[in-house]
Amino acid sequence: MKYTHHQRRNPVPSLMPLGEDEKSLVRMAAARILLPDPATVKSFNHEMFPTIRAPRELYQELKLKDRIVGMCDDNTTPRWALLWTHGIPGKSKQPTLGWTIAHVWDRSQDLDAYSRLANLALIPEYLGGLSDKQGPLTRYLRYHAWQVYQWKPVDADVPIVPDHYAEICWNYLTPVDDPAGFFRDEFASANCRRSRVLKPLMLPQLLS
After folding, report:
1. CA-based nearest residue to 25, from 176, 102, 126
2. Residue numbers of the domain that contains 37
């Protein structure tokens, strides 16, 4: 095959749409993803931590009208939120080796969304790119969060049901009898700089 001078300088072709392959890809990926248990999500109708993603300002307090309202984080608190509410202990990344904590909506600067269970998913690292930006999984996960958890960010449009959505089989983390109690115990036992900044800021119902 012969190439023109222009083609040799720009060898990467434009991305091709997935077309009919999207259905198979999404079904395969969804079968390997773990989502928050619906009943557990319902029992926590709020964010789990007053945090946003800002790793360069890690541990810095967030202020609104001279009132401290949250803390800058590095994706640790979403991991704690997802694991501890499902009875999985651990402060380090050890329990999630090989997995990535993905956000359904990219609202990393939104206190209401960043650590909310309805906005989180546990995805194998080798599939992580499928939920990034406008990856093929994104609209399926967003519609799932709206249909199953009845949640979306305040400024987001109501998701439209994707093609073939009814054929997707979702898997959920196993619930525990007292998710709030397990969460409180794990957080109370944390003695790191992150937890020391957060404890005075936590919602009273999470610590009582």
Report:
1. 126
2. 20-207
- d(Cα 31, Cα 43) in Å, to the nearest integer? 25
Q: Give the count of alpha carbons within 13 A of 151, CB side only.
A: 20
**Separation of alpha carbons 59 and 52, rounded Å:** 10
What's the pLDDT at 45? 86
List, in sequence order, every residue forming a beta bridge with 29; answer none if it has no partner.
Answer: none
- Helix axes of 179-189 and 76-84: crossing angle, nearest 10 degrees: 140
Q: Is residue 140 part of a domain?
A: yes
Q: How many CA atoms lie within 13 A of 74 on its CB side?
A: 10
> Are 149 and 38 in contact, with CB atoms under 8 Å apart?
yes
Residues 70-124: tens digit of each pLDDT: 999 999 999 999 999 999 999 888 888 999 999 999 999 999 999 999 999 999 9
- pLDDT tens, position by position, 119-148: 999 999 988 777 776 778 899 999 999 999
Strand ranges across the sheet with 120-124:
99-103, 120-124, 34-35, 171-172
Q: What is the pLDDT of residues 40-50, one digit of tens each?
A: 999 998 999 99
Q: Where do we find the tokens 């060898």?
A: 11
Q: Domain count of the chain? A: 1
7 assigned to some structural domain: no
